[in-house]
């Protein structure tokens, strides 16, 4: 059950096209979505439907052509300056010449003065929470892919952002490892509720983590359907085996297949 209190992310009528004028392709067409504070929302849809573009617009990495995004009531620029947005990319992007602890502390060290009055999380504590307590002095190259991705997630939490934007953070992992990382994130989030936008291709992942699942349609990218995930929280891996989980899986897969078939017409 969501503990939504006010809008964490408010996306209103966002449109975005790419390409030179005359041959522009509309990637997002009038997308509106609100993610409440403390709500976990996954975005799923056919390849190329604009999921990453929507996340990048929300993160302020690219500008929308039309529409607005507000984060905790502020413009994306202001929210980004105030470190309210945490971003976890597809690949961990850790600096190979710095230890894991240095990598996680790096955002704090970059501008100490600006961070002096911020509430910051303890990097060592975060790393321990994500099961990396014994790996702090190792270098990224000495860690498995899953451990590297957990370090990247820990790094995104150091500013204790109100909003977490995650773009397929586990896509490079094998299924077993992926499930382990997913459950580690779920555990952490269940006691540190943030507004989360989570892009994924995995139906079980979206169900296990989310309060709501946004199914996108392609060409142009738009919201086709929003599915409520009313499984009780806190959730554990036991939820996979329940009838409710399987019923939801059928609903989400059907919605996704419809959009995938339409995308190939
Ligand atoms: N900077 C860019 N310039 C031109 N086209 C772009 C740019 N970024 C994305 N696109 C195009 O926009 C469309 C949507 O891309 P996007 O990465 O948002 O989709 P996606 O749903 O995240 O895809 P996937 O599931 O395959 O990761 C694609 O056709 C892509 O080629």
UniProtKB/TrEMBL annotation:
Alphabetic keyword roster: ATP-binding, Nucleotide-binding, Transport
Coiled-coil positions: none
CDD domains: ABC_NrtD_SsuB_transporters
One Gene Ontology molecular-function label: ATP binding
Keyword Transport among record annotations: yes
Pfam families registered for this protein in UniProt: ABC_tran
SMART domains for the chain: AAA
Chain ranges of the ABC transporter domain: 9-243
InterPro entries in the cross-refs: AAA+_ATPase (IPR003593), ABC_transporter-like_ATP-bd (IPR003439), ABC_transporter-like_CS (IPR017871), ABC_transporter_ATP-bind (IPR050166), P-loop_NTPase (IPR027417)
Protein name (database record): ABC transporter ATP-binding protein
Organism, scientific name: Agromyces neolithicus
């Amino acid at each position: 059950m969501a503990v939504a209190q006010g809008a964490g992310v408010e996306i209103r009528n966002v449109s975005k096209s790419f390409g030179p004028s005359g041959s522009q392709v509309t990637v997002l067409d009038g997308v509106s979505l609100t993610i409440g504070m403390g709500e976990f929302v996954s975005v799923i849809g056919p390849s190329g439907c604009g999921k990453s573009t929507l996340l990048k617009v929300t993160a302020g990495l690219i500008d929308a052509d039309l529409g607005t995004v507000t984060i905790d009531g502020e413009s994306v620029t202001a929210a980004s300056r105030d470190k309210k947005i945490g971003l976890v990319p597809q690949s961990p992007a850790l600096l190979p010449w710095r230890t894991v602890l240095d990598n996680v502390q790096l955002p704090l060290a970059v501008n100490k003065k600006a961070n002096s009055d911020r509430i910051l999380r303890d990097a060592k504590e975060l790393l321990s929470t994500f099961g990396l307590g014994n790996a702090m002095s190792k270098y990224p190259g000495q860690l498995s892919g899953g451990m590297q991705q957990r370090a990247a997630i820990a790094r995104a939490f150091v500013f204790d952002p109100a909003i977490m934007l995650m773009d397929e953070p586990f896509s490079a992992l094998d299924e077993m490892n992926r499930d382990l990382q997913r459950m580690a994130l779920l555990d952490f989030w269940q006691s540190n509720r943030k507004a989360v936008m989570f892009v994924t291709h995995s139906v079980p992942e979206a169900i296990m983590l989310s309060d709501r699942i946004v199914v996108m349609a392609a060409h142009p990218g738009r919201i086709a359907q929003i599915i409520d995930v009313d499984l009780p929280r806190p959730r554990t891996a036991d939820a996979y085996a329940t009838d409710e989980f399987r019923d939801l899986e059928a609903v989400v897969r059907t919605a996704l297949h419809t959009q995938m078939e339409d995308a190939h017409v």
